Amino acid sequence: MSAMDWNQLRVFATVADVGSFTGAGKVLNLSQSAVSRQIGALEAALGVMLFRRHASGIMLTEPGTELQAAVQDMSSRLALALGRINEYREQPEGALRITSSVTFGSAWLSARMNHFLEQYPEIAVSLLLVDNLELDLSQGQADVAIRFDRQTQPNLVQRKLMTIHYHVFASRDYLDSYGTPKEPADLDDHKLIVYGDDVQAPVDDINWLLAAGRSPDDARQPTLRVNSVYGIYRAVRSGLGIAALPYYLSEEAPNLVEILPQITGPSIDAFFVYPEELRHSKRIEVLRDFLLSEVKDYKSTQKARGAQSL
Fold first, then answer.
1. Roughly what angle, to the nearest 10 degrees, separates helices 32-46 and 21-28?
2. What is the pLDDT of residues 37-59, one digit of tens each?
3. pTM beyond 0.70
4. Which CATH number is 94-161+270-304's, of 3.40.50.150, 3.40.190.10, 3.30.420.40, 1.10.10.10?
């Protein structure tokens, strides 16, 4: 179609959306007669009627409905293409939706967004934090995900971000009240907080602390079960008991103390994941490099303090 035909399609789409020539004219800043001429010319070029005119207004004919769907599809494809073209700009900008778990996103990730946005003020970040549900990147529900298992979908790009280890923690107040266990067997005399029953745990054997120093068929009974790692963290921080937590959570609460460093819990890998179609996105490129740098700096800081790994 010619360049003029694109303008006719724009007028047509507006009339179809608004439902009247007069209303479309106001949206497009055109007179009603100008809108009518554009529609008449488009109908003449196509050889069909696109609208039925009657006393109470207009309505799409069957060919008009077909054309409306086609124009909407073209508009969506054009918007997507323009979005991808914008990714090639040197200065990263625009919306960036990042999804992760509630615990990791609330603690480790959100704490670093200030530095990221200082470096890239033209990027508008949205954190979409959910547990036991993965937003579909291929359907555009998010742009980037921090996932805790290796992805198998062929249309996703992934990069390992870090390995997260679980360590044993209690609050200073709890240890002052109940003493500090020196050996795993000492946990028999303490209050343990573990992950909830009948829900998918973020890591295998997450409740390993119940059997630490005992046979698996003689596990301890916990004081509290919580189906959220962040909920467990809050309970430990309040002084309720002892729990295994990801190491990065300890930086959120200075009153947490690592205990029983001689026993190790499960670990889990975190991956930076995004759709193949965004491989050349500047926004995603700078976020990836930023997070990898943050992981490196965090590990160096922990090592300098004599702390164990993430």
1. 110
2. 999 999 898 989 999 988 778 89
3. no
4. 3.40.190.10
